[in-house]
């Protein structure tokens, strides 16, 4: 219960931090990373966060959108995706408005930068870091340190082929496992 209180406090306070306090937002997301690595199923998500504000289904997936500490009633702070067939959690996306710098989360060896559709004609970029448990952390739209992101995503790496096939192809071509 104490972990849940700390986690919820971090979730509720993270959107309040403006860019000068981005380090505080990073600390809050570090708590989320630790929390999400211990959550494996839809049942565990519902036990910890309660019912989502909105859900959607697509293919074998269910999207659960939460508004935690967000002022705009149309925006979602967290989007969790679970596999419909087995209830396994495959992804958590955390949105930030305003965008935040998350360099501390990517200040480790093995961070890679990827571009869609490719590096020669980039239309979109992200930084990727491998986490334990076969998951990856991605800073969407942030190709280099000092560049803010509006969304961090934790995803089961094997699911990249379903959500970011271009990224999976780039990782496979680079021989990154």
Q: What gyration radius follows from the Cα positions, in whole Å?
A: 16 Å
The secondary-structure element order is HHHEEEEEEEEHH
Q: In terms of structural class, how would the helical and strand content be classed?
A: alpha+beta
Q: How much strand content do the residues show?
A: 25-35%
Mean pLDDT: 81
Residue share in helix: 25-40%
Overall shape: it is globular
The main β sheet shows up as: 8 strands, antiparallel
Number of helices: 5
Strand order of the largest sheet: 1-2-3-4-8-7-6-5
Q: Report, as a whole number of angstroms, the end-to-end distance.
A: 36 Å
List unreliable stretches of 5+ residues.
1-22
Q: How many structural domains does the protein architecture include? A: 1
Write down how many β-strands occur, each being a DSSP E stretch of 2 or more residues.
8
